[in-house]
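Hey, resending since the last one bounced:
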Amino acid sequence: MTLQTLSALLDGAEAAQYAVGAFNVSSLDQAVAVLDAAETERSPVIVQAIAGMSAYDDESRWWTRLRRLTEEYASVPVALHLDHGRTYEDCARAVEHGFTSVMIDASRSNVTDEPASFEENAALTRQVVELAHPAGVSVEGELGTIGGAEAGVSGVVEEIVFADPDEAVRFVGETGVDALAVAVGTSHGSVKFTDEAGGQRLRLELISEIKRLLTGTHLVLHGSSSVPGEAVAAINAHGGDVRPSYGISPEQKSSGIAAGIRKINQGTDSHLAWTAALRTFLHEHPPVVEPSEQLRPAIAAFRGMVAQRMKEFGSAGRA
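The structure tokens again:
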């Protein structure tokens, strides 16, 4: 199979009522882990990168190499996606580098990071659609404000501005997006929800209502990581300092899929798995300086977490 658009992958997920995992990567090692998991699990997959977030100084070469790597995995359907493009220029560069899908996150101002008006969001999103669609590239937009930090570094959970179903209909009508990320109770980053009560965070009735009104548009769940406690504990036991918290449970994500979610973004869980394995290895093997020995357990842990999520999302065995 060749690289596919986001629309094509999610059309298949809609027909069979599962979700495709979209996994953030910031290095070729992480991309290999995601693609190896997809090949092993026979799962469609979305490999996604964020502008300005990688282990490399030259982003153009990074994106070119990432595109080439995804093309090597011909046995599984793969979409190469730009996650959280904040500007028109971000999306234009991704299209030029062969990404098959771009997300324009115009829900917040690129200058102040404050919530943008509906009109500002729709206008910029429409510009990106007019750029991408003639090039055969899918577009994802965002409505509402999802809490937390996309890079997972601040640990500050902002107030969530939930998506409005009627505005969702208007937004899709005015922009023509193929997929829509909706704020329904999740939060970005490695520190999510910390109150003692825990419990449900997804507004399943809101997902169902938006899905009922937007039958032809694929719904996306951002900030969906579960924040496994064992990974956080392993990191902190070996010199780390990650604040314990909780995210969205696998059971909640399954309910979200049943309500209409077709793309689930995940970054934090696989990053926690990577970091826990790396810290543990370095602690247990202090003389080791060979990078390959250090990276091997980190890549394996990353791959294992991705494979686990593929099974939970229902995409395993679909390729």
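The two ends are 9 Å apart (CA to CA).

Sorry for the duplicate.
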